[in-house]
Sequence to fold (217 residues):
Amino acid sequence: MKARFLPLLLSALAITATASAEPKKYVFDCESWKEGEPPKDVFVVEGKFNVVANKDGGKALQVEVGELTDSNALLGDSAAGSASIEAKVFGTKQGRSVPKFAVGVHGQSGYRLVAFAARKELQLTKGDEVIKVVPLTWKSDEWFKLKLEVKKVEEKKWTISAKAWPASGEEPKEALITHEDTTLKGQGKCSIWGTTFSNTPILFDDVKVEIDAAPAK
Fold:
């Protein structure tokens, strides 16, 4: 009888150990970085990113204007479970054109929170699929915050919550978008995205990442 319960006991211990492990936290505030190419913690997948001095006297990570593409970069280590990202973003309207920007978790095909200002939409996407949409109020030439959290609450249950708000204001208490997933693998790095539709750079700053990392071997 005891042998029958041993696998269950080991499974329970593994789950407990995973739940009690301290998450890894990263803060990318750019101030200590040299201007020019970003450090190795920022892995540029597509487009061009540079560390630049911003109008506030500090530094930021800039998505450069160039070929019109979904520029994106991966940050920190790969998650093996829950993951969250928060970022401050600055974009500029030019004529009728406005930028599009996003934060994401679990790699390029994971969940993404997209500020699609041209459509006045805040979108939760996964890969190429739009999962949920709510109205977006965004102003040109003002810092704006995006926050995306994906949490593993049970073995096959994940909760996704998303917020967006002007950086000059307080973080909303309630999420603007919530969702559940039972198929997520929860692997991959957090990411930032920018598409310079308005032919003006997009700035990212104060990027905060928190992940449940794979146990050290």
